[in-house]
Every structure is written in structure tokens, then in C-alpha cells.
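Appendix B. One record, verbatim.
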Amino acid sequence: MTVLDPFRRSATSLMEQQRRQPLLGGCALFLVGLVCGYRFGVWPAAAWGAVMCGLSLARMRRSRMRNMLIALFIVSLGWCDAARDLDGRRKEVGQWKEQTQRQDFICRVGPEVVMTPLRGNSAKYTFRGEAFRTEAGSFTCRHLPVEIGWFGARDGRGAPKPGEVWRLKGRSKVRKGRDGLPMLTLDAGEERSRKVADTDMMSWTARIDRTRRRAVGRVVTGIEDWGEIPSLNKAILLGSRHAMSPEMRRVFVDSGTIHVFAISGLHIVLVAAVLVLVVTTLGVPRPYWVVFVAPLLVFYTVTTGARPSAVRACLMAVLYFLAPLAGRKPSGLAALSGTALIVFAIHPWQIYDIGCVLSFAVMGGLVVFCRPFCKAGKRMCGVDRFETHARLLDAGGEKARARRVRGLAAMIGFVSDSFAVSLAAWLASVPLTAYYFGRFTPGGLLANLVIGPCSFFVVVAGCLGLAAGCVNDWVASTFNHAAGFFTLVMVKTAEATSACPGSHFRIVKWAPWMVWLWFGGLLAFAGWLYARRRQDGLAWLGDGVEQENNV
């Protein structure tokens, strides 16, 4: 055995995984094309290359060049998509510079308005401007995203609401967004703006806003006087993070657990787990789970404000549950890859969005590493030996001792699984938090052992309280009290973790090559794990389907 043998086995296993699930390679090539498109532009050349590759593939039957042409075709499609968006932004920047900077604009308020308290009784309301144009019609934004800061009273009276059409006058400028791409910003206020039209009450924006307002009232029924807890429950269940105080936000940031307040993959997975438990109890066959689970997941996503991270996670869950109905084996990696292709094809600029990249990275880490880490943790803790001992006690007639041993095994397994989930998410997020934020939070590994399970119970109890609020306020209050208790445990855990020396500290921001080196190492590690676990096939990469068939 040579030093290079583990690397060869890793490469071989990764190639076999690509052969079994070509969607993974297709997604990676498309993302490479997007990065090249935003880096180099020239979308007509990329479009011409895609057309030529497509014509060549149509005429070619079997050849060694076919796979290479397919790869070039996918890269060219991504390149064309990104370069076209970049070209549109640059043209609109040039058109905007020809305009008078201070003039009247017309826009429709986006689906979410975030209020940030300022000094005294004032506040800043931030929202995206849709169908943004000058009042004279000399300039219209189709590619440039527009972020509007509207300053007014903190009580919200007269502030813009989702779906309304406003006439704004203020100072606008082009700047680079957090994704590094150009965007347009406009500052306005009460004295320089006027509502032109009310929200169309039959539009999806208005329906989402009404649904969310009702949900906000139901998740705090009975716990309105619990201090910070109601605002935290709103943030956890409905994504209303602006309701959190800056002090409480800092506590969760320092403890490395702020991710529980992002309506994303974690929440959708938790809600999906609850729904799967319900449909399984009702005896619904697995191929038809999607018929019952998908509409409820979509409803929850809409209720929480249809944030981009929640929409991505919901789409992934629907694709996963749709596979059995389409006669395919469900695969977490395939669902993740399909979601990435759909999301980045429609909105290519999200390849540079911090939240989007973190969301996909963490979900990828959970899908790839969660299952093998859980099995390794249970082996290290000797859970199988506890089960064997319990069976021997049953055979010897000591039923009471057998139940205690099984209870201890379940408790150890639960802690082991919680740590495995935390470790998988942490490994995937470390390079990105170091690159974007220059922070390192080792304390989050231990804090998530408590906060992760508590967030599950908060989501379960909160969803039950949300549903019960449609029938009876007393029942809703009971569930909300349970959710509030677990939120309180989360707060105490985060405070204790952030107070520990060395649990969090700032570091020099990583260079891009360090991020790619980290993810390259994780990819090689994944291939090595698969190569070592030959008897399990691709079970841990395919969510157990292959293992179940082999057994």
C-alpha cells in the first residue's frame, strides 16, 4: 500500500458516484459556467458556443468526445446565463448615470419590509423596489436590484406595505452589493414620498402578508408577557428576525447558533419530519407522501414570508419526496443538485449571495456527512452493545433492567446523533464564515447539542400552536407555552456558551484558495468514507436507499 492509495480510492469512488448520479456533475459544471460568466462576460460568445455544442451533440451518436461536448455545453449555458445578467446590469448602470440623480421614482413595494429601530421614535424601513422606474419613464430597472431605505416613525403608521405602489423622491446611487455585483439604492422618507396605489388584495403579495400577520399573532398567544421569548419565537418560526433585540442577536452570534433564526433547510427539514410522521401514522404509502406533504410545506413557506432560503429548502424537499412518485429512488444529493440548478438558472446572481451559498453548503454537508457520522458516533459510544445486552436481559426474564438499558441506549444515541448533525453542519460552514465574516466559533459545536434539539421542539410545538390557533386560543396557548420553555433553554445555553472564554473569536478573513482547499479536502474525505464502507454501498450518499436494497 502506497501513500497515494487512499487518494486513488477517493477519486475512484467519486467517479462512481458521478456515474450513478450524473446530475451532480452537471450541477457543478453549470456553477463553473456561472462563475466564468460573471468573471469574463461576453455572453454572445458563450451563447454561440452552447449552440455549436448542441448541434454537435445532435449529430454525434457514440464517441469519446461526447462526454466532453456535454460538459462544454453545460458550462456554456451557465456562462451565457451569468454574462447576460451582468451585461444587463452594466447597461442599466450606464443609463442611470445619464439621468438626473435626484428626481421622482415609481415602484411597487416588495414582499418583505424590514423595520430597523433608530434613535428616538424613528425607524428605517428597508424593502426591495419592484418595477422601479422614473416618473417620466426615461429609466426602468429590469436587471439591477433596487434597495430602498424609507425613514419614518417607529409605530409604522404611513410606512410602505408589501404590494403598495409609491412615488419616491430621494438620493439614489449605484454601489456594489454584498455579492459584489452592482445594485441601486435609494433613500427616501415621509416628507419625500407619497402612496400612489393600495395593495391589490387578490395578489399573492397581499395574501402572503395577511397570512403572515395572522400567524404572528397566533405564535405568541398566551406568552405575550414573557419578555424576549415572544420575539424569539417569531424569529424562529416565522423568520421575523427584526423583532430580536441587538443584544440577544449578539448572544446567538457569539455562541455560533444564529442559524436557528434563519427560515431555511433546518426548519423545512423539521417541519417535513413532523409531516412525514403524520402521514406514516395515517398509513399513506411512501410514493404518495408528496401529495400530502408538498402542499403543507408550501403553505408553511408562504406563511413564513417566502424568504429565498425557505423557498430553496422547500423546493429541495418537494423534489426529494417527488422521486418515489416518479419511479426514482430518493436521493438527498440529487434533490440538492436539482434545486441548485433551478435556483441558479432563474437567479444566477445568487451564486455570490452569502446566505444562498451558506444554505447550500450546510445542506450539502448534512446530506453527505450526517449519516456516516451518526453511525460512527453510535459505534464509538457502543450503542449496539447496549442493544445486545438488553436482548440478553429480555431472554433472562429481566424486563425492567432491559427497559432501563434500552432507555440509556436511546439517550446516548440521541446525544451522539445531535453531535453528528452539529459536526456535519459546522464542517461545511467553517470556511465560509471565515471567508465572509472572519469569525471562528468552536463553542457552537457544543451549544448546538442543546440548541439543535430544542429548536426541533420549538418548531413542533409552535406549528401545533399555529394550527390550534385556528380552533381554540387556550389550546394554542398550551403549545406556545411549551415552545416558549424550549426557547428559554436555548437562550440560557447561548448565554452560557458566549460567556465561556475561547468559545468565539475573530480571525483574519480567509483567502479564496483556503476555502477551496477546505472543500477539496471534504470532497476527498467523502470519497474515502465511501471507499471504506463498501458493504453499505452508497447508502449514506443516497439516504439509505442502496443499503436497504442490499440488506
